[in-house]
Amino acid sequence: MTFTTLEDAEKFYRNYAKVAGFSTRVWSTNRKGNEIKNQLITCSREEKWKSKISPTEKTNPTTGLNCPARIYIHTLKDVGAWIISKVVLDHSHPCCPSKAEMLKQHRELSMSIRRTIENNEEAERESDAADFHTVIPCATKSSIEAQFQDVYTHQKFREVQAQFRGKANCITRLTNSAIGYSVYEVGEQVSSSIFNKFVVTYDSVAAEVKCQCLLFESRGILCHHALSVLSFEQVSQVSPRYILERWSKKVKRRHTHIKSSHDEPLMEPRSKRFDQLVFRSQNIYEFASESEELTAILHRAYDNVMAEMESLKAKRKGTSSLSHEDAKLESVNKLQSPPRIRTRGRPKNRLGSKLDKQIANATKKKKTKVLSEINLFDAASVLHSNSSQYQGHVMNYQFTVPAARDNSLGV
């Protein structure tokens, strides 16, 4: 079987795998310079190693089954085409064509799913526009509710309004009070005869309120117990810490070229030009990615365009030219993903082992130094005690000198 390009051969085997009920992957590719000579495509469950875990304890026993299914693709120099030289159709595992669409390689978005995504995006844009051009009326006369109304989106403000409505079922009672600090007991009427009690603390100095239900800590919304205490304290404005920026309708995205529905009326000319270029380049990318020849043509066109644009930019600002292949992302973002290391079991030279050795050596030196200092201190103590004993003997000797003879006993 002969193919014009390597991509056609890969596409043929991929379509066959979808019909047969398995997925494929490129196992190896041999090159001579920049030209591909041959390629080996195998079943995705082809594995050379045998797991040390017993089949009864293995959580995913169908991952590596040493499947022999594969094809070999070679190039013909004289004809300039690609040919499948060897085919192995047998599998070491059952294939299910009805579930092939669940495999990662064969997953595709249906038209209904695409339309659902587009409808959700359109609904989100309409909701964002409604946040700016419409206003939800307040449920109470509270100035705190008006504060949330001015900042939050409609969806989040409706959740806040539910807490203000629930404040009507709360009875607040002061249990303990100190200078700038008060403790309240809030009783919430659940039914005609059942009340749930919650402890709420309020710090007037720090403008901080905390409730036992922990609704703000879990969902980021002040509960009706805390709102009842704030009304009891006659607080007109809450602290900015209770107004989270991620739910604000005036939030600005930190992207310079990506369009945001919040920035639609004030979009910069550079962002508009960027959107137009992206819209037109998508069709070019899809068309050029069909084969290597079209991709090479697009690369050459990019080089010519980049050289022309950089020469024009150099004339204006004196900058040097740069081709699109030489451009790097280091000037944009120096953060890179860590290298991927495929190992089995615990690595012999794990990351940080060198640092651990340095820390161990430093600790060992420190202990040795401390022990040497202790030994010197002990030696000095021994010498000091010996000298003290010697002086004591001398003093004793001085005190034990025999008294002078009594002259009255003279000869």
TrEMBL record:
Where is the protein localized?
A: Nucleus
Q: Which UniProt keywords apply?
A: Metal-binding, Nucleus, Zinc, Zinc-finger
Question: Which Pfam families does the annotation name?
Answer: FAR1, SWIM
GO cellular component assignments:
nucleus
Major localization class: nucleus
| Top-level taxon of the source organism | Eukaryota
Molecular function per GO: zinc ion binding
Q: Which residues form the SWIM-type domain?
A: 198-234
Q: Where is this region: Disordered?
A: 316-352
A GO biological process this protein is involved in? regulation of DNA-templated transcription
Enumerate composition-biased segments (Basic residues). Answer: 341-351
Q: Which family does it belong to?
A: Belongs to the FHY3/FAR1 family.
Physiological role: Putative transcription activator involved in regulating light control of development.
Protein's recorded name: Protein FAR1-RELATED SEQUENCE
Q: Which classification does the entry list for the species? A: Eukaryota, Viridiplantae, Streptophyta, Embryophyta, Tracheophyta
